[in-house]
From TrEMBL:
It is found in: Membrane. It comes from Vigna radiata var. radiata (Mung bean). Its main location: membrane. GO terms for molecular function: zinc ion transmembrane transporter activity. This is Zinc transporter 4, chloroplastic isoform X2. It holds the Pfam family Zip. It is a multi-pass membrane protein.
Length: 371
């Protein structure tokens, strides 16, 4: 009898435990014993709300402006994807992305996960370098995603080209074959006599496929890393109620968004997406930070950014974003560009790209003074 009563009471016990767990998780985000770093004498909710609208407009324009310049410039002669000017612009963008990962995201993650409040929340927290660990895991996961996505797109693009070649070969005339590059006219006799000789230019097609695929994968993975960080900084600005800290932060984040947009726009332009796809990716990037500000403003009254739950979430997401951007900058942007044959054959381009690489990294690093 008692066993039956105990069995009937288990669902109720489970319900009580679930409610207590959810309540504790909610309290860990909405309340905390950690002190706010904002100056209480500068707290002004009405003035902060006005500044949040200013921030959304400013950051939105900066993001659209940064991502639009490379996309609009690719139709110009001096900013063609295969030109030297575009290569130099990509070097500048690589420096921006590298500094974003190392200087901004790692620092923010280190400050969040190293907050003294977390040591009282969990005594073992300070005994392990979680920031570096999560960044390492993120970089390794990015490598895996990079490899799998590249293999998938190469198979997909390769099959498409083989099928198109077969369609042209079956029942097509000589002129159509020449236009597709499947065949090539070569002199095989004197007095202007020619014959059509089929050539299997697999290496040329393979190089084209690999180049296109790499740019597509790089742009998509890069946007993933940038967007995740953009949402975090938008939320941080949105929940703030201190005009003293918000005013310089708005200016810094506007420049921050412009430079990141320029870097992402260069990768999107190089990937040669269709107009609709490029527009969607650009809008998704430009709207992320203002959307984060709006969400932060909506939950500012109930959300405590200095709670243990909020600090852990922010720190983990920042370290993951840092790992993604550091991998992309070093492997897919800097190494791929500076170790290419095009760079080795042009000494002037080498000097220009190195200077712009350091300039982009320096400018983005200097913004860490304010944001």
């Amino acid at each position: 009898m008692f066993l039956i009563q105990d069995l009937f009471s288990l669902p109720r016990l489970h319900h009580v435990i679930s409610e207590s767990v959810l309540q504790s998780l909610g309290e860990s985000v909405t309340s905390s014993s950690c002190k706010s770093t904002e100056l209480e004498q500068c707290r002004d909710e009405s003035a902060a709300l006005v500044l949040k609208f200013v921030a959304m407009a400013s950051i939105l324009l900066a993001g659209f402006g940064g991502v639009a310049i490379p996309l609009a410039g690719k139709s110009r002669r001096f900013l063609r994807p295969d030109g030297d000017a575009f290569t130099a612009a990509r070097a500048f963008a690589a420096g921006v992305i590298l500094a974003t990962g190392f200087v901004h995201m790692l620092r923010d993650s280190w400050e969040a996960l190293g907050d003294p409040c977390l040591r009282t929340y969990w005594s073992a927290w300070a005994k392990f370098p979680f920031t570096g660990f999560f960044a390492m895991v993120s970089a390794l996961c990015t490598l895996l995603i990079d490899f799998m996505a590249t293999a998938y797109y190469e198979r997909k693009e390769g099959r498409g080209r083989v099928e198109r070649a077969k369609v042209v070969e079956c029942g097509s005339d000589e002129e159509a074959l020449l236009e597709t590059g499947i065949v090539e006219v070569k002199d095989v006799g004197g007095e202007g006599s020619h014959a059509v000789q089929r050539t299997h230019s697999h290496s040329h097609h393979r190089d084209d496929v690999e180049s296109t695929v790499r740019h597509v994968v790089v742009s998509q993975v890069l946007e993933l890393g940038i967007v995740s960080h953009s949402m975090i900084i938008g939320l941080s600005l949105g929940v703030s109620q201190s005009p003293c800290t918000m005013r310089p932060l708005i200016v810094a984040l506007s420049f921050h968004q412009f430079f990141e947009g320029f870097a992402l726009g260069g990768c999107i332009a190089q990937a040669q997406f269709k107009t609709l796809s490029a527009t969607i990716m650009s809008c998704f990037f430009a709207l992320t930070t203002p959307l984060g500000v709006a969400i932060g403003a909506g939950i500012a009254s109930v959300f405590n950014p200095y709670s243990p739950g909020a600090l852990i979430t922010e720190g983990i997401l920042d370290s993951f974003s840092a790992g993604i951007l550091m991998y992309m900058a070093l492997v897919d942007l800097i190494a791929a560009e500076f170790l290419s044959k095009k760079m080795h054959c042009n000494f002037r381009l080498q000097i220009t790209c190195y200077c712009l690489l350091f300039l982009g990294a320096s400018l983005m690093s200097s913004l860490a003074i304010w944001a």
